[in-house]
Amino acid sequence: MLTLLATALVSSTAVLAQGGAFTPLASQSFTYTALPYQADPNTGERGHQYGYNICNSTTQGQESLCQTAIINSIDDFCLWGPPEPNSLIGDTEGEAVAWCTKGGHGTRVIPEGALTGVQFMRTPDYIQVTGHIRQERINIAADDSGGEMDPHGADQRGNPLGGLLFSNAWGGGYVQAIEWHNFMGGGVFCLKACDPRGPNAARFCEHIFDRIGCAYNAPAAYEDGVFESCLGENQDFPGIYTSNGVVMTYTQPPESLGPISVRPYEPRIPASSSCTPYTSSALYTDAPPATGAAASSSSTTSRASTSTPRSTATRSTTGTSASATSTPGAGFVGASVSLSALLAGFFAFAVAL
Ligand SMILES: *[C@@H]1O[C@H](CO)[C@@H](O)[C@H](O)[C@H]1NC(C)=O
């Protein structure tokens, strides 16, 4: 098993190396006003970057393949979603495109009624948006328990390949959030963008806990029907918790061991303050109507799911722990086993050794 995974890693690195020097996506800095057409010009086992990073009025629209995302505020942020309807995150994480709350970024715009509860949170080290979503309206299959996107991946090209994230929330114009993570699925979402000036950006925006979802990677209130923008304290680093006064590190088991049936801790939800309430109709004025199957299917599937506390135990097709009741989903036990997930498990295992 370990040999197999190590071989897979070495061979994907070798393929990339044939095209010349390869620099991991998260080791590169980009300037918003001088972006390349594609941040990832490489070819590899996962092919080419699916879309592009130069996004403007000609790319704006619901067919956009823009892969430059923005997170500024509660009324101006993007999430990563599949380009084609009814997709699984596990199958399409490498080609996700930006779905934004506003026009003007050269992207798709999240259709009306998709976001049913949103909290924007600013802390000393990151900004974060969390909430509930009728995910089929941004092309995620209604029953997908989802997964994680971040600028890493087994081949270090990012999920999506070449995906970039910028924010003007830290002042000085658009700044690249080099470290970020975005979990989508199970009717919830979380996007955390770590301030690159902070010493712990890579830890707050950790990418190795891809199987335990928003609740563990981005603990927050997740109140459906509530739209608010808050200040807050930092979370614990994902995977770090304190038990009886002792700081502990969680090790995520590899997918080869089956569903995660036991989680030894409940993540701490940090204190928030200065929350400003909003109504969604005032926030998302650019939202186009929901169309096609997504519009009709959502009226049944999402209504039911948004009116009651979410249970990942019933949402997850592959059997999330029965003890994990009412935990926001987004990434619990993806139905498909991706190489990156396997390798994340491998590295966690290796570190534990
Ligand atoms: C608009 O974006 C497209 C796609 O990235 C690019 O080919 C084109 O050059 C851009 N137009 C301008 C004026 O920058």
Summary keywords:
353 residues; globular; binds 2-acetamido-2-deoxy-beta-D-glucopyranose; disordered N terminus; 22% strand
Topology:
Elements (H helix, E strand, L loop, with lengths): L1 H17 L49 E6 L2 E6 L7 H4 L4 E4 L7 E2 L5 E8 L3 E8 L13 E3 L14 E4 L7 E2 L3 E6 L2 E7 L6 H4 L8 H5 L9 E6 L7 E4 L2 E4 L22 E7 L1 H4 L8 H15 L5 H4 L23 H14 L1
Parallel strand pairs: 1-8, 3-4, 5-12
Antiparallel strand pairs: 1-2, 2-3, 5-6, 6-11, 7-10, 8-9, 10-11, 12-15, 13-14
What can you see in these coordinates?
- The chain is of the alpha+beta class and 353 residues long.
- It has one domain (21-293, 301-352).
- Helix content is 19%, strand content 22%.
- It contains eight helices and 15 strands.
- It has helices at residues 2-18, 89-92, 201-204, 213-217, 280-283, 292-306, 312-315, 339-352; strands at residues 68-73, 76-81, 97-100, 108-109, 115-122, 126-133, 147-149, 164-167, 175-176, 180-185, 188-194, 227-232, 240-243, 246-249, 272-278.
- The strands form three sheets. Strands 7-10-11-6-5-12-15 form a seven-stranded mixed β-sheet. Strands 4-3-2-1-8-9 form a six-stranded mixed β-sheet, with no helix packed on it. It has a two-stranded antiparallel ribbon with strand order 13-14.
- The longest helix is centred in the N-terminal third of the chain and has 17 residues, at 2-18.
- It binds 2-acetamido-2-deoxy-beta-D-glucopyranose.
